Every structure is written in C-alpha cells, then in structure tokens.
Amino acid sequence: MNSKASKPATIDAYIAGFPADVQTILQKVRAVIRKAAPAAQEAMKYGIPTFVLNGNLIHFAGFKNHIGLYPTPTGIMAFKKELAAYASSKGAVQFPLDKTIPYALIERITKFRVKETLAGAVAKRSE
C-alpha cells in the first residue's frame, strides 16, 4: 500500500504500491473507467488516480480493505439503490476487497458522469 510520505506521480506508480491482487483490481477499475470515458485524461489529484473531462470526472483509490470510488455526489445519488449494499457517503462509495467488485456498475456510473459533465460544458458555453 502507498505510504503518505511519498505520493506517486503517476497512476502506474500508484497502483504499483499495492499487493499484486489489489493491483489487478485497480488496473481493472482503471480499464473500465477508460473504456467508459475514452475522451477523459488520466491524472493524479489529491494523491489518487483521477479521470478528467471538463473538470474532475471520477477518482478511484485503493485501501487495505476496499476500493474507493469518488464519482461526485451526483454520481452517488443517481445510483443510490444500486449502491445501497455498500458503505457510502455524499461523494464516495467503498467496494470491499473480499466481495466481487461491481465493474459493470462502475462503468454505468462513469458513463453517467461523462454525460453529466458534457451537458454541463454545453450549458456553460451557451451562457
């Protein structure tokens, strides 16, 4: 697991700091988000992997017992029923490492955020 003392500069370096089994999960989360948001750029923000598309699109992170997904409060609210089985807060959800990671749900949440972000960008341009 990554120590707070040395923040990785890239997503690859971030993922490399985890045990092999968690690396596999993080790489799959990354691939799912990449496929759902092909126009988004990868970045490290707040010390965690981030996809950016007209601002922060979605973040993800690895922890000792879970994978954290940060799709903003609107991303959590839009999927409230599907996320009910997981620990969540206003803008985050935790997927336990000892359960199957819901990659299809991560993909749907990401696609929702892409539509939301692009709609927001169009609205800003028309103001």
What is the radius of gyration?
A: 14 Å
Main structural class: alpha+beta
Instruction: Provide a count of the helices.
Output: 5
Distance between the termini: 45 Å
The number of strands is: 6
Low-confidence stretches: none
The biggest sheet, with number of strands, parallel, antiparallel or mixed sense and barrel status, is: 6 strands, antiparallel
Strand content: 15-25%
Characterize the overall form.
globular
Overall mean pLDDT score?
92
What is the helical fraction, as a range of percent?
A: 40-55%
**Secondary-structure element string:** HHEEEEHHEEH
What spatial order of strands do you see in the largest sheet?
A: 1-2-3-4-6-5
Features of the shown structure:
45% helix; 127 residues; six-stranded antiparallel beta sheet
Describe it for me?
- This protein is α+β, with helices and mostly antiparallel strands and 127 residues long.
- The protein has five helices and six strands; from the N terminus they run ααββββααββα.
- The protein has a six-stranded antiparallel sheet with strand order 1-2-3-4-6-5.
- Helix 2 packs across helix 5 and helix 3 crosses helix 5.
- The longest helix has 23 residues, at 103-125.
- It is globular.
What does this entry show, briefly?
The protein has 127 residues and is an alpha+beta fold. 45% of the residues lie in helices and 22% in strands. Helix 2 packs across helix 5 (103-125) and helix 3 (72-78) crosses helix 5.
Summarize the topology.
Blueprint: H1 11-16, H2 20-36, E1 41-45, E2 48-52, E3 56-62, E4 66-70, H3 72-78, H4 80-83, E5 87-88, E6 93-96, H5 103-125
Helix pairs in contact: 2-5, 3-5
